[in-house]
From TrEMBL:
Coiled-coil intervals: 320-398
Any one of the GO CC terms: cell projection
Protein name (Swiss-Prot/TrEMBL): Septin
Keywords assigned: Cell projection, Coiled coil, Cytoplasm, Cytoskeleton, GTP-binding, Nucleotide-binding
Family: Belongs to the TRAFAC class TrmE-Era-EngA-EngB-Septin-like GTPase superfamily. Septin GTPase family.
Source organism, top-level taxon: Eukaryota
Subunit structure: Septins polymerize into heterooligomeric protein complexes that form filaments.
Domain Septin-type G as annotated: residue spans: 38-304
Length: 416
C-alpha cells in the first residue's frame, strides 16, 4: 500500500489505494446469500369497503387464493382478517402476510372506523418493541408482523374521496406507508380517470395526508420512481380469470364489449403497482416502516414511560441515570403511598376511638340517669311506706279508741 498516494480526508480518515486483491468486494454476495437463506417477509394491509376487490387484487398480485367466502355487509364492528402464506419464486422465499379489513364502511356511524386499523398497526409495533426490550432477544426466529404497506382501496366513483377515506388515511398516515389505489378501475372511463386521479391527489394535499412516495434518491430507480409518483393513485383491476385474447391466454375480465387485460399497461395500472410494490420498492417500504413509522412509535412510547436522551439541563442522560432516577421516583412514590396509608389508618383508629368514647359516655349518662330515676323511685316508695305505716298506726289508734268507747257504752247500759 503506497503511502505517498494516500489522500487525507477532512475527517482524518485516510483513503488508501489498494494494490492487490483482499476479498471484501465479495461482501455484497455474502449479504445476498444470507438473505436468500433466511428468506424474506412482507406484510400488506388492505383497507377498503366490503366487496371493493381487495382479495381479488391480492390474489392477482401473488397468485394466491385468499378469498374463501363473501363478507356480509352487516358487521357491527370492523374486524381484521390475517392470512400468512409461504411463497417461492426461483430460489427466493417470501413469507407474505395479508391483513384485510372486514366490514369496513358498513357501519352507520363511521367516525371511529379507523380505530381498529390504527390499533392493529400499533399492536404490531408494540410486539416488536417488547421483543427489542427483552434481555434475551431472539430476532432470528421472531416473526416481524409490522405492516410494511397499506393498500388503500378507493371506490371508483369518479367523483371524490369519501369522508371515511380521508378520516382513516389521516389517522394512519404517520403509522404506515399508504399507497392509494382506485379499485375496480374498469368502472371509469379514461378521461374521467385522469380527472379523478387529480382530484384525489389534490384532496389528499388539502387535508395534509401523507402517502408513500417512491424514493428518488437511488439513481438506478430515480426515473421510474419519480414517474410513478406522478401516476398515483394507481387505477387497478383484479382478476384470477384466464381469458383468450387472439391465441394467448391472459389474465383479465371478459365483458360483452371485449376483454380488459389486467397485465396490459394501457388497460390499467396493475403492472405498475406490482413492479413498484414487489420489484422495485419492497425493501424501501420495509426500511421506511422501521426507520420512520416504528421509530416514531418507539420514541413516543419510551417518552411516555419516562425515557429521554437529554436531561432538563440539555445534557445527555445515560440509561443508567434514567434507571436510577426512575427507581428513586418509584421508591419515593412507594414511600408517599405508605405514608398516606399510615395517616389514613391512624385517622381511622382515631375516629373509631372517638366513636367508642362517645358510645361509652352515652352509656354512662344512661346509667346515671337510670340510677337517679331508681333513687327517686326508692325515696318515693319509702315515703309512701312511711305514710302507710303512719296510717296503720292511726288506724290502730282509732280502733283502740273506738273499742274503749264501745266497752264504756255497754257498761253504762248494764248499770242502768
Ligand atoms: P370482502 O372480503 O367481502 O370485503 O370483499 P373484497 O373487497 O375482498 O372483494 P372481492 O375481491 O371479493 O371482490 C368482490 C367482487 O368484485 C367479486 O365479484 C369480484 O369478481 C369483483 N371484482 C374484484 N375486482 C374487480 C375489478 O377490478 N373490477 C370489477 N369490475 N370487479 C371486480
Amino acid at each position: 500500500i503506497p503511502d505517498d498516494e494516500d489522500i487525507q480526508r477532512e475527517d482524518n480518515i485516510r483513503c488508501l489505494t489498494m494494490l492487490g486483491h483482499f476479498g471484501f468486494e465479495c461482501l455484497p454476495h455474502q449479504l445476498v446469500n444470507r438473505s436468500i437463506q433466511q428468506g424474506f417477509s412482507f406484510n400488506v394491509l388492505c383497507v377498503g369497503e366490503t366487496g371493493i376487490g381487495k382479495s381479488t387484487l391480492i390474489d392477482t398480485l401473488f397468485n394466491t387464493n385468499l378469498k374463501d367466502k363473501k363478507s356480509s355487509h352487516f358487521y357491527s364492528n370492523i374486524e381484521l382478517k390475517i392470512q400468512t402464506y409461504e411463497l417461492q419464486e426461483s430460489n427466493v422465499q417470501l413469507k407474505l402476510t395479508v391483513v384485510k379489513t372486514v366490514g369496513y364502511g358498513d357501519q352507520i356511524n363511521k367516525e371511529a372506523s379507523f380505530q381498529p386499523i390504527a390499533d392493529y398497526i400499533d399492536a404490531q409495533f408494540e410486539a416488536y418493541l417488547q421483543e427489542e426490550l427483552k434481555i434475551k432477544r431472539s430476532f432470528v426466529d421472531y416473526h416481524d408482523s409490522r405492516i410494511h404497506v397499506c393498500l388503500y382501496f378507493i371506490s371508483p366513483t369518479g367523483h371524490s374521496l369519501k369522508s371515511l377515506d380521508l378520516l382513516t388515511m389521516k389517522n394512519i398516515d404517520s403509522k404506515v406507508n399508504i399507497i392509494p389505489l382506485i379499485a375496480k378501475a374498469d368502472a371509469i372511463s379514461k378521461n374521467d380517470l385522469q380527472k379523478f386521479k387529480c382530484k384525489i391527489m389534490s384532496e389528499l394535499v388539502t387535508h395534509g395526508i401523507q402517502i408513500y412516495q417512491f424514493p428518488t434518491d437511488d439513481e438506478t430507480t430515480t426515473q421510474v420512481n419519480s414517474s410513478m409518483n406522478g401516476q398515483l393513485p394507481f387505477a387497478v383491476v383484479g382478476s384470477m380469470d384466464e381469458v383468450k385474447v387472439g391465441k394467448r391466454m391472459v389474465r383479465g375480465r371478459q365483458y360483452p364489449w371485449g376483454v380488459l387485460q389486467v397485465e396490459n399497461e394501457s388497460h390499467c395500472d396493475f403492472v405498475k403497482l406490482r413492479d413498484m410494490l414487489l420489484c422495485t420498492n419492497m425493501e424501501d417500504l420495509k426500511e421506511q416502516t422501521h426507520t420512520q413509522h416504528y421509530e416514531r412509535y418507539r420514541c413516543c412510547k419510551l417518552h411516555k414511560i419516562g425515557f429521554t436522551d437529554v436531561g432538563p439541563d440539555n445534557q445527555p442522560v445515560s440509561f443508567q441515570e434514567i434507571y436510577e432516577a426512575k427507581r428513586q421516583e418509584f421508591y419515593d412514590q412507594c414511600q408517599r403511598e405508605e405514608e398516606e396509608l399510615k395517616q389514613k389508618f391512624m385517622q381511622q383508629v382515631k375516629d373509631k376511638e372517638m366513636t367508642l368514647k362517645e358510645a361509652e359516655k352515652e352509656l354512662q349518662d344512661k346509667f346515671e340517669h337510670l340510677k337517679r330515676v331508681q333513687q327517686e323511685e326508692r325515696i318515693k316508695i319509702e315515703e309512701e311506706k312511711r305514710q302507710l305505716e303512719e296510717e296503720i298506726i292511726n288506724f290502730y289508734k282509732m280502733k283502740a279508741g273506738s273499742e274503749t268507747l264501745q266497752t264504756q257504752g255497754s257498761t253504762n247500759i248494764k248499770k242502768d
